[in-house]
Amino acid sequence: MRGLQLLVDLVTSMDHQERLDQWLSDWFQRGDKNQDGKMSFQEVQRLLHLMNVEMDQEYAFSLFQAADTSQSGTLEGEEFVQFYKALTKRAEVQELFESFSADGQKLTLLEFLDFLREKQKERDCTSELALELIDRYEPSDSGKLRHVLSMDGFLSYLCSKDGDIFNPACLPIYQDMTQPLNHYFICSSHNTYLVGDQLCGQSSVEGYIRALKRGCRCVEVDVWDGPSGEPVVYHGHTLTSRILFKDVVATVAQYAFQTSDYPVILSLETHCSWEQQQTMARHLTEILGEQLLSTTLDGVLPTQLPSPEELRRKILVKGKKLTLEEDLEYEEEEAEPELEESELALESQFETEPEPQEQNLQNKDKKKKSKPILCPALSSLVIYLKSVSFRSFTHSKEHYHFYEISSFSETKAKRLIKEAGNEFVQHNTWQLSRVYPSGLRTDSSNYNPQELWNAGCQMVAMNMQTAGLEMDICDGHFRQNGGCGYVLKPDFLRDIQSSFHPEKPISPFKAQTLLIQVISGQQLPKVDKTKEGSIVDPLVKVQIFGVRLDTARQETNYVENNGFNPYWGQTLCFRVLVPELAMLRFVVMDYDWKSRNDFIGQYTLPWTCMQQGYRHIHLLSKDGISLRPASIFVYICIQEGLEGDES
Fold first, then answer.
1. pTM (2 decimals)?
2. Which residues contact 112 (CB under 8 A, 6 or more apart)?
3. For 518-544, how does the pLDDT look when each residue is reduced to its tens digit (9 = 90+)?
4. Where is this region: Disordered (predicted)?
């Protein structure tokens, strides 16, 4: 494990030049079929197919001859490097470089500064920052001393994180983390224990490990009575396999804070008997120890939910909670001394007296109950996240408290957005909401979380085991802010008097126009690696997800038989009303006239984290794994207001 981790660290810490050297070495090894340390022209032709490029034979031979300085009829060492450089020459980058360089050989400090300000839209860029970038990306020591950037250094900058479309300033934790929990979108998982479908899939602690390591902060635990008095976790009334509740808790304890220090929420769906609920409470208390939040912060009665900062490295239980009256009654009936007096007092502070009509209903219900459904030991571990049924927004406002949370199926949540979008937005400014996938999604498919985020729903639970468009949007959204699993909502989704309606967005939200010139692609992987001679015909699709009126897609034409360095040079235009909620997804597809286009790679990011100017977009696989060095090169320009709008 240590050896593997060292290798991973080595690769991830490589700069652009080191990656290029490794890339060259790998290609040479793959192309040198007879492993004699030399490459014949026949081997070069084979290599071109492996590299996903179709090239005229005469042109390929001319490049080969130009690189074969020893005239040996083969390429070795530096000759192969020169051949590769000729093959990968970026004419579009060279042209850009020469447009700012007086002599076409280098960029002086002032020329590079002009480029950063004019093209990269870094208006506040100083000479000191430009010099820092030259020191970071110029490969030659003489260039660094003279404060100039060569073509190689310029390309190295464009391929770096500073030249990436994702703003590096949004990668660490950059948002205010001291606001109440309900002011954040929270990365959430549905039926976290499942690693397959909802009917026959395998249950495994691996589901929790994967979710927590990708920054998920709310995991779901469905608990049922198990053999030998030990509660088990599985999808009830299905053929999914079962795992022990205590193993799940132990896994959460181990992995909760490996990726993020901010609080983890255990969403409990409890179907256990009284006795096994007591066992659950014991496991939670003993295994989680100090990590478990078992009382309000400092024992003080709050007036709002605590912040992620205040709850650092704490695990919160979300679930049903007894009222004080029920606790007292159950204690008399069952003589179960589960709640301490201090806890009872605290609960009495939390609970207000019910309305007379509600009190009568409670009294009737009490007569019917012979045995409590929820034991006080488990109830007492639910502090800030008491699960309550949703009836209406008016009912919630009149009867519920800030520490209570309602869950909605995706169908119900979408209906409420259409029927009462602004009320839903206002509801989510003071109380948490959790949305979960429809029960019809037995294949563990996902819904688009963006529709629910538009209404300010904080916990939009996803089937994280299922890759695809919806998880790309989720991962892209939570890539910002240090990947900590918490993203601060826009101010109009935090204002309790907000007039925002996700279906009818109006002023004062600032509309913007986005121009994207899709320029070129680099080293796109093959879709079907089993066919040595197959070459991709790539096209780029750009999708915007946001409020319904902003959702749009456009695509380029396809480039025939070139996955190595395709050139598009096409400009796409989008008009967006609510940029604060917009997500961009770039997808590269392999055109197929006979059937659906095949997926090559994608990258998804929030509009607010996008850098303008000439940027590289480093592609990810369906599972979110880096496909480096595969990338597309674009020019991004954002204009305020809608093009052609009178305002």
1. 0.85
2. 100, 130, 133, 134, 149
3. 999 998 988 866 555 578 999 999 999
4. 328-368
